[in-house]
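Subject: Protein record for review, amino acid sequence with backbone structure tokens
Why sent: The fold of this protein is of interest and is recorded here as tokens.
Notation: Tokens come from a learned vocabulary of local backbone shapes, not from coordinates.
Attached in line: The record itself begins immediately under this heading.
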Amino acid sequence: MPTKPVIRAAAVQIAPDLISRAGTMVKVLNAIADAADKGAEFIVFPETFVPFYPYFSFVLPPVQQGPEHLRLYEEAVVVPSPETRAVAEAARNRAVVVVLGVNERDQGSLYNTQLIFDADGTLALKRRKITPTYHERMIWGQGDGAGLKVVQTSVGRVGALACWEHYNPLARYALMAQHEEIHAAQFPGSLVGPIFGEQIEVTMRHHALEAGCFVVNATGWLTEEQVAIIHPDPKLQKGLRDGCMTCIITPEGRHAAPPLTHGEGIVIADLDMKLITKRKRMMDSVGHYARPEVLRLIHDTRPTAPREEWAPAIDTVAAKEPSDA
């Protein structure tokens, strides 16, 4: 059962600092303080917000992406690092659960990574997007099934997916089957155009209904000045506007507060956790409404690695020197 009857949640729609990781981190820490001052206990930031989502990869051809891609390497986040410790300290000091999207650097690769910090400052989960989408495949490596995990936090059982992972029904089902109560969703925002925001809303409302959980979704925002910096061509700039849908959805598929689709701001709503049971009494997709003898998910939770040490046992009998007899 949920740990508290009512949880105040915050979804942050915010513009990154496109110049530096340090600049974006200042915005993260200020937003945590702002949301906490408003009583938030659970705070979600946009996809790969630190240092910034790689918007350049959507509008630049691959042959021109090199300099910006290399700059993203330099500004990316290592886990652990001073940046993760700063967020952990902020979560602990304000007793809030924080879900932060980062570009994670692991040696020679970058990953779309979601970090969940519990209210005591511990890093409850580090997961990587299992399949980067379209242009993102030039930027990030792939995550694995070990990250498809629901974690117990001070506000309840929390799961997370990034962007179009929500179009993978088995990825969503993996979290549903672990009985997530609050789902953290993250999208880049300021991308594709108005249709993207419309699609996000449909997807978030559907997951809330199907999972019988709350969904807290944060999308990013770009100012007109930032759009011009990313690409000077007005035609391509159209692909860097709109597409925002920062929202909080109840298990009944309703908005818990008016969504934010333009500009910076924080959507805040109180989550009445009794609504989870109210919804699941009628339809529990992984319980009384499931048919596991007909349909079930096989989830490989083993972490992947490029190298695995394996030392076969030595046959001590065969290894003995032949006798002189």
Remarks:
- The two ends are 73 Å apart (CA to CA).
- The first strand starts at residue 6 and ends at 13.
- The chain has one domain: 6-319.
- The CA atoms of residues 110 and 139 lie 7 Å apart.
